[in-house]
Amino acid sequence: MDFGLSEDQLMLEETLRSFLADRVPIGRVRDLRNDDCPNNREIWRSLAELGMTGILIPEECGGSDLNLLDACLASQSIGYSVTPTPFVSSAVMVPTALRELEHPLISGWLAGIASGDIAFGIAVTETFSIREGAGIAIDQGELSGKAMMALDICSADLILLAIGSEHLAVIRADAPGLKKARLITTDATRCTSELILESVAPEIIFEDVGKTIARMLDAGRIALAADSLGACEAMIEQAVAYSKQRKQFDRLIGSFQAVKHMCAEMISELEPARSLVWYAAHSFDALPDEAPLMACHALAHVSEIGHEIASVATQVHGGIGWTDEHNVHFWFKRIGVGRSLLGGPGLLRERAAEIQGLAKSG
Amino acid sequence: MDLEYGQRYEDFRREVRTFLDKHKPKDSPGGISGIRRKKLVEWLSLQIDEGYWARTIPKEFGGYGAEPNLLETVIMDEEFNRAGVPRGMASQGASMLVPTLLEHGTDEQRQRWIGPTMRGEVMWCQGYSEPGSGSDLASLQTSAKEDGDDFIINGQKIWTSTADKSEMIFILVRTEPDAPKHGGISYILLPMDTQGIEVQPLRTMSGDLGDNSFNQVFFTDVRVPQANVVGKRGEGWRIANTTLKHERNSLNSNSEGTILKLMRLMERETTNGVPAMASPVFRDRLMKLQARSLAMKFHAMRMVTCSLKNENSGVAGLITKLRNCQLNFDISALAIDVMGELGALYEHTEYERDRGYWQSHSFFSLGLIIGGGTAQIQKNIISERGLGLPREPKPAKS
Ligand SMILES: Cc1cc2nc3c(=O)[nH]c(=O)nc-3n(C[C@H](O)[C@H](O)[C@H](O)COP(=O)(O)OP(=O)(O)OC[C@H]3O[C@@H](n4cnc5c(N)ncnc54)[C@H](O)[C@@H]3O)c2cc1C
Known about the structure:
heterodimer, A: alpha+beta, Butyryl-CoA Dehydrogenase, subunit A, domain 2, four-stranded antiparallel beta sheet, 51% helix, B: globular, binds flavin-adenine dinucleotide
């Protein structure tokens, strides 16, 4: 029995964390928010050079064919440094889906993701929640309709698009008839958009692939939980470090019991959540029957504790934590927007109940 | 990551299961009071003979004598849990005194006490807290004055669980009044029927005077041989800290079974003909608790892995008591809520559900949030030892 990380996994985490600390420090993230889209392709390419974008891609396509747990360690490190990059969409969800499908174009796309030459965006919101009359329909092989909160579109070459919850399509990001409008959120480190399609000719449509869509969503939810977990971890570290350095009443604020207990609460919630995310990722790899439930619980639970940690860690900073000049808000917002994406805690818990037969589905 | 235990351990699991199928007590596994004690001793003795209790305690001290093996312990706990019977006995003697004697006792003390304690023949209570010394335990005042080969004890202990039913007490007393606070304490064993000991039961908030009784224990000129000290005189604080460590480890209660029990309740329990499980509000709360329970379950697996690999678990190893005790309390709160007004019933009133389990569980979990180091003391430990935050400055002496 070994419920822990391997040497290789620890090394992967260490490599990526030190790379991001060095190459995408918070000052660079701050600069990137002024670009049209924060998902800088140079960062994507260097993640590819480190082997990160190909973690879930077969070796024959240039990837390393590792597990979701490995991808989650990468995702957690990316969340830890609030790096703007389409990792959850393009390096986790898209490869998970494409590997289960068959088409001559797929191996080229996967190879492009692994090498960093291709980045995907993803539009799957309507598989779990429809708002603003969104939805894509197929008519004589062409796609029309609207998709909300599509992820990582602005910097993408290709888009993986859900049509209902049974079909998938791949379209080119510059396809005629496709209109993209960025939907600005509080989180400047992520790219979310609205898509309007008017008779767009897809590269390909995969029909009746509901199971693949479900599995792709599970992977995405677990990897997103890991991203938020990493952001929580960073926030607690910053709060603890600040409380060892800031003085009030001639004392380090970290010697005040109220501050200590805030920190103790945060870390005591974080550590079990880390264990839950590990288990969820491991179940996706090795215990597929458990994965749908664990994916819902992992993301919902991390979102709940994340809400608290993001707030409390900011409070430990006092007034400076509420400024734009201080950086802690980047993490606060990353966690906050992560909570809204791919379902949200209420929807995920209802899904968790359905999976166990405790609630009627539909 | 590999969650398989391997063939050898699966064989072991099967053995445990076979044992339980054959020998599991039909009703209750006995208890510490009255005639239930005899049944308890038989059941515990059988478990020791088969190696499912006192497994790693040497044979000469009354144990089974196996090499320590964490995975075997995990498997035994899982299987006993599944069968719904306690493995061994949750008592201060087995979980706190015995590990302390194994670590610090003389051979004579070990030979005399460990076997009978593990078999349930001798029950112990823990005499630490005093009216003026709880969280600040080292300030304790109960004194033991030297008199020839003996000590004479005077003072008072309080919140002493099961003192009224115990044959023995392990107690912290001040033997060196002039030594600094932590340096003057000794750890002593003595029989509860020694002249000069008086026990006054205290009714708990649960109304319980049964197996979970609460007591005050008064000591008036109680004579005890110096040979009853465990470890060296004046080292009681250090020794007690090993015991407290064992207490914290033994509080890692698993909530998975309680969640299942709650699910069954929510399926059965109806309001206006609608089961509680059909209420989105209750269901949402249930799912929140289930996620927390799963997180703690996997966290325990992670901590076991750290031990197996001899890795320091760091701050992650300090949070278990804080989170589990609160979780258990919150689980019973949902159960009580789903029963609506009938959730208030108690004392085996008609219509009470699950034989009053949930109100008792709620009281009991609240007690565990306080006992064995309060939640606030846990947070002090987590932040100071786990996160390295500065200690509270000592107030200036006036
Ligand atoms: C169910 C149960 C069983 C018990 N069984 C036994 C037993 O068998 N034997 C035994 O010896 N004792 C036993 N106890 C006693 C238990 O160990 C003490 O109650 C506990 O350590 C708290 O001490 P206290 O009651 O004096 O509370 P206090 O120490 O007076 O605490 C009161 C409040 O102040 C807070 N507080 C105190 N100091 C600090 C601090 N430094 N920082 C922040 N907050 C602080 C506490 O957290 C608490 O909220 C038991 C208690 C319970 C509830």
